[in-house]
Amino acid sequence: MDPVRNPYAPGAGQRPPELAGRDREVRQFEVVLERVAAGRPERSLVLSGLRGVGKTVLLNAMRSLALTRAWGTGKVEARPDRPIRLPIAQALHAASRELAPRHRDPDRVDEFLGVLKAFALQTSANERKGVRWRPPYDVPAARGRADSGDLETDLIELFTAAGELARDLGVGIAVFIDEMQDIPSEELAALCGACHEISQLGVPFVVVGAGLPHLPTALSASKSYAERLFRYVSVGRLDRAAADRALTLPAASEGVEYEPAALDALYEVTDGYPYFIQAFGKATWDVAPRSPITADDVKVATPEAEAELAVGFFGSRYERATPAERDYMRAMAELGAERGDGPVATGDVAALLGRKPQSLSPARDALIKKGLVYASERGHVAFTVPHFGAFLRSQPT
């Protein structure tokens, strides 16, 4: 079949042609937007799940939904080596630019930009290093608002000013934060504190975060009330019906069908994970000679899809690990072979490697910081990437 017409999109954060299986999450966010804009109390939202389940895609879909409601929006991708003050300022600057053309009072817009500038100027020269964006220079920085240097206090004042600007238009502002688990714990606590305060004030402002499975735990550790502050949504693999829709609807738009046995085979190899569905769907399309796509086509395409995943999805992550960290992950994979690649006890990893658990703490902590594993519960770790254990077991030692 024509590869130019291939409808599948296996890319990081790239929206698939059919956002299957996420209707419930989208409807939940629609309710949040409507309630907040109407001045009703509502919680911000946190999405969590393994890599490859489509968290970033869903985050972007929610942002698009907010834009259709005429909200102001901005997006942040958190990084462990970068404080969040300047990225938050950039995101809210983008949101204000979306609202400004519709605002009847330019002075109100300038007032907000002054608060934003005061907030941004609290960053150190080291934080601004390598960042091209600068606060708006055509307005003076506000004095006494969002400029205390205390992040939580300044976030409250900035979020309040942003929400008030949006309220003038009968809408709200939403900030979307990807890789939220990478925000340092002190800054995460400040962000939670600010969200708590503005929710009590009824400001039309929401935060939508996305991150790895341990993000809810990290939030609760930063502020004890965080478990009640956000609406938590676990994003997982697709059920069979949704996985079939993700494959068949894009193909149907190109006049192509699947045999039932082909869909059986694809669900077996992808396990319902959205990224794998796109990767295997693309490879199968490229090798299939004609419609309908058959189970034999899937069989031919599987080695090609697996080879691409081994380099891009799995291999790139494996290469980031040091030899000691790779030993730790291989031990996890070996133990996981007996337990369905679920969480494994850190004590069992140490026993398999013939080491004391304390001596392996640096390797484990480094893997957590690199986003390769996460602490699923006390004393247990698991891979952040689905099927990563199987990948490691397939590699030569």
Mean of residue pLDDT?
92
Radius of gyration: 23 Å
Proportion of helical residues: 40-55%
Structural class: alpha/beta
Strands, total number: 8
What percentage of amino acids are in beta strands?
5-15%
- Distance linking N and C termini: 39 Å
Q: Describe the main β-sheet briefly.
A: 5 strands, parallel
CATH superfamily of the largest domain: P-loop containing nucleotide triphosphate hydrolases
pLDDT < 50 runs, ≥5 residues: none
Tell me what you see in this structure.
Pfam families: AAA_16. It comes from Thermasporomyces composti. GO terms for molecular function: electron transfer activity; heme binding; metal ion binding. The chain is built from 17 helices and eight strands. Helix 6 (151-167) runs parallel beside helix 7 (185-201) and helix 14 crosses helix 17 (388-394). The chain has helices at 23-37, 55-68, 85-99, 106-120, 125-128, 151-167, 185-201, 215-222, 226-229, 240-252, 260-270, 274-287, 295-318, 323-336, 346-353, 361-369, 388-394; strands at 44-48, 72-77, 173-178, 205-211, 230-234, 344-345, 373-377, 380-383. The protein is globular and about 65 Å long. The strands form two sheets. A five-stranded parallel sheet has the order 2-3-4-1-5, with helices on both faces. The protein folds into three domains: 23-234, P-loop containing nucleotide triphosphate hydrolases (Rossmann fold, 3-Layer(aba) Sandwich), CATH 3.40.50.300; 239-318, Helicase, Ruva Protein, domain 3, CATH 1.10.8; 323-394, Winged helix-like DNA-binding domain superfamily/Winged helix DNA-binding domain (Arc Repressor Mutant, subunit A). The chain has 397 residues and is α/β, with parallel strands linked by helices.
